[in-house]
Amino acid sequence: MSGKRRHSYPQQQEESGKRKTKREEIPTLAAQIKEERCGVQTAWSRKEKCSRTGLELDVHPFPHCVIPNFIENQSFLEGLKNELLGLHFNEKSNDLYKFKQSDDLKQKEEPYISALRKVLSEDFREWLSDVVGVELEHTLDLFCARYDYTDVLLCHDDWLEGRRIAFILYLVPSWEKSDGGTLDLFSTDEHYEPQWIEKSLVPSWNTLVFFEVSPKSYHQVSEVLSETKTRLSIGGWFYGPSLERPPRYIERVLPRHPHNPQDHEILYEWINPAYLDMDAQSNIQEEFEDRSEIMLKNFLKVDKFQKVCKALSETDIRWITKGPPNKRSYQQAEEESMPEVLKQCMELFRSEAIFLLLSNFTGLKLHFLAPSDEELEEEAEAEKEGCASSEDQRNSSCPHTQGTGHQEPKEPGVPVCRGEVRHWRHGDYTLIRDSDVENTEFALDLILFSGCKGWQAEFGGYTSYIAKDEDEELLTIHPEDNSLALIYRDKETLKFVKHINHKSLNREKEATDRNGYWDFYFVYYE
Length: 526
Known about the structure:
The chain is an alpha+beta fold. The chain has 13 helices and 24 strands. It has helices at 2-24, 31-35, 37-46, 74-85, 111-132, 265-270, 278-291, 302-312, 340-350, 352-362, 373-385, 391-394, 504-510, and strands at residues 50-52, 55-58, 64-67, 89-93, 97-102, 140-147, 152-156, 163-170, 183-188, 194-201, 208-212, 219-221, 231-239, 293-296, 319-322, 328-333, 416-424, 429-430, 443-450, 463-467, 473-477, 484-489, 493-497, 517-525. Strand 2 (55-58) and strand 3 form a beta hairpin. The N and C termini lie far apart (102 Å).
């Protein structure tokens, strides 16, 4: 009997080992999660701050909770991490972000991913529903995100119909705030527009953060600054009844002005004479009409451009940060504080002479002396068909000779422009906003660059034009010293300036006077 028992013991031990391994593949939520359910639930309902056995609940700037040691099984977490790193990641890059993301994990059959999905959609969902007082749906969005050096996710609110709770589980190595990649939470103003970063959460191994998706839930993943660490996380959204959203705030339209009455002498004072030649202007217009954009290099006279560059680096200029951060972040020069040469350059781009020159460059009617498309078509038609001089022909079908069908020509609008001087540095960007009034009009963009020597595409800071509702880029404008970019955009074309990343600082190490770059940015309307 004892022999049989000794013979069977190794088999029993092996079966026990198999059961143990199987149990380790099932994640267990930390004990304090269930133990602190009532306390966290009460604090959430009262919108009060709460700290209990490691769980941190805060309602400022919007309700969120930090749960350290979310999963008890460390071996499970290591297996999950290895499984996630073995997935295929898609490069994602647009105006809002640059990082790598897995495919949807809802249907993945890998054991660790499946086990985590099960515990999130069952045990944790039930706990979360009780805490926030909302019946959350059983299905959830789930994906893995990988952020490496210079990856970033800029300010946004996560809102999408039905999203109620966002969550992130971090699987990162030892992490410091200096590594970047923090989850930054923004305060909001009376219009529910984000203002500034009120709180930054540093990623930590096996820590889960969740927050309520609301009109106030503006947040970002700051740029990863570590060149050796990977910010790995798994996250998504639970769905339920959406919170009511206020009407979208529409920004005030920036003032526009007609041209200033300055004659062509200002052009000879400032602009490279090559661009004042009529044949050259005809060639430029032909190319522009074919492509709707052109880059004119060495646009200003050398001596004028050098004075502009020197003036832009002067410390007396007052620079104003332009926001809000869900739309833009850059420095705008206060015009009254500009040195005289910069004021004169601004006057150049507002002058009557430049309006006419731009008309010659583009074929647009930005001056009353420039013919409109209708006038050119009528002239071409008249030359093609002609009108005979006989009485019979005069009484026939020439539309401009008919009495009853004649319509007075529509009075054209007055061409106007608006402009600013911008300073672009590490961390600056603009985002696409479909609701912007500017995106509902035809317009000519003008950009004159300065301080761009040594600027590389990998730094960001380029201007990208895309078709509305599409990700494909139509045009990319890279900063280039003393180059004038002209771009005509229609109502279906959107633009953004790509986030300037940490690599741009390497350029400043080589030359201390290279603090980002500047541009004169004007928009002209027919």
